[in-house]
Amino acid sequence: MRYFKLKERNTSIRTEIIAGITTFMTMAYIIFVNPAILSQGGATGIPFEAAVIATCMGAGLMSILMGLLTNTPFALASGMGINAIVVFTIIFGLGMSWQQAMGIIVIEGIIVTIFVLTGLRSMIMRAIPMGLKYAIGVGIGLFIAFIGAQEAGFVGLSSATAVTLGDFTANYTQLAAFGLILTVILVAFRIKGGILLGIVGTAIAGMAFKIIPFPTQFISVPTKESFATFFRADIVGAVWSKGMLNVAALVMIFALFMTDFFDTMGTVIGVGGEAGLLDKNGSLPNLKRVLLVDSLAAVTGGLFGASSITTYIESASGVSDGGRTGIMPTMTGFLFLISIFFAPLIAVVGGGVEIAEGVTKYPVTAPALIVVGFLMMSVMSKIDFKDYEIAIPAFLTIIIMPFTYSISYGIGFGFISYTLIKLFRGKFRDLHPLMIIVSALFVIAFVAEALARKFAGS
After folding, report:
1. pTM score, two decimals?
2. 121, 115 contact by CB (below 8 A)
3. Is residue 183 part of a domain?
4. What's the pLDDT tens digit per position in 100-136?
5. What is the secondary structure of 85-122 as a DSSP string?
6. Boundaries of domain holding 354
7. Number of neighbours of residue 218 by Cβ within 10 angstroms
8. What are residue 311's DSSP bridge partners?
9. Helix axes of 327-338 and 13-27: crossing angle, nearest 10 degrees
10. Apex 149 CA angle, 146 and 153, nearest 5
11. Per the domain annotation, does 174 fall within a domain?
12. Roughly how many angstroms between the first and final C-alpha of the chain, as a whole number?
């Protein structure tokens, strides 16, 4: 156990295992949500059961690899947002097959891997000013809390104001409110595993009041058809059709590359900071290995047919429960693998309450996300809001993430505004050359995504 540096990081095997279970609980929704998006009721050609197996195996294997190779508390699974782009923009919008869509994911993952192996990805992370690194962590915390508030039913949709107060007469919202109070009390009293205990207590209450069902089946055995999506990605067909390059596909590769690249960057900085693993320069130990595993996970996701697999912001839930080493994601990965056989049981706790067609709430795990969001926002005091040159970009980074539902958009707005402020004030020497380059790439990426949506809509 010396490899995991338990004493140096002030943790224990028990704490790490609990943190791994907590992380799995907050991530388990992906087991059912990702296949639902990818299959779209069979309209995409991707079998739902096959997508479930691909999602579990991809998340399980890559989380274990992250834990064992890097000794960091980052778990991985198929990325929300990217899976929707795969289906609605690439398959439905561009008219490509799901095999070609997965081919695009593989190519994008290979490009990110090249950036890691050449050291460019690490260099870019080190070029980010500390104020922006803190802002990324705060923004992710606010983003996680906003997701939790929506999943709990505390926040509803409004055609006039976009969001409004949720329906507190609904039993699932009341269950989430109970879970939030329980979790807040446990965390406030500094009880070890408080977030996990909150999830378990909320699940028991939900079953007792028949808001979530008791599991009627515990074990399910996968069939041969469950592996129908494995190694079916059409890499050549993704970019070359009818004797010519597919320009729209190339635009999508670039857009996905930027999203994948900077979503992970934000997650690593935010969660790594919460775990206390960043040094005084905001760098993470074993950074290159972390980024390599993450990039290979994107390739693996495409090859398995699970969409791009990426480092998850929900890892912060395990970190908030004390996770500091690679044991945490290894445990999470193990639970993803065995969930292949226990999907009916996991569907009760990690699944949700369907309140309407296509609308699901997650009252059991949502309170945990809200509390984690609070814990991650604690570094806001380290941002110098008196210095407008860093305060304004930091502010934009923080608010754009939840407003656009995207980590990479928040980072992009922060980078671009920081670079422009420095340039217009004539402080060229304060700017790292990579910040200028990346800011320009973000502008190109935003334009490229707009063009891709235009192609998809035409």
Report:
1. 0.80
2. yes
3. no
4. 999 999 999 999 999 999 998 888 888 889 899 999 9
5. IIIIIIITTT---HHHHHHHHHHHHHHHHHHHHTTHHH
6. 2-142+224-358+376-457
7. 11
8. 76
9. 50
10. 145
11. no
12. 57
Q: Between residues 218 and 317, which one has the greater pLDDT?
A: 317
Asked if residue 348 lies in contact with residue 214, where contact means CB atoms within 8 angstroms, the answer is yes
From the number of C-beta atoms within 10 Å of its C-beta (0-12, 13-18, 19+), residue 98 rates as: buried
> Could you give the dihedral angle defined by the CA atoms of residues 110, 112, 113 and 114, in that order, rounded to the nearest 10 degrees?
90
> b/e per residue, 405-436, with b = 16+ CB within 10 A?
ebbbbbbbbbbbbbbebbeeeeeeeebeeebb
Quick check: is 136 in a domain?
yes
Give me the helices (H) in 275-363, please.
287-304, 315-320, 327-338, 343-349
With beta carbons less than 8 A apart as the criterion, state whether 24 and 330 touch: no
- Here the tokens at position 312 are 């998850």
Q: What is the mean pLDDT of residues 166-190?
A: 95
pLDDT one-digit tens code per residue, 383-442: 999 999 999 999 999 999 999 888 888 999 999 999 999 999 999 889 999 999 999 989
153: left (phi over 0), alpha (psi -120 to 50) or beta: left
Quick check: is 212 in a domain?
A: no
Number of domain units in the chain: 1
Half-sphere exposure at residue 163, Cβ-oriented, CA atoms within 13 angstroms: 10
CB neighbours of 89 closer than 8 A, spacing ≥ 6?
252, 452, 453, 456
Whole-number Å distance between alpha carbons of 142 and 399: 8
Under 8 Å between Cβ of 343 and 215: no
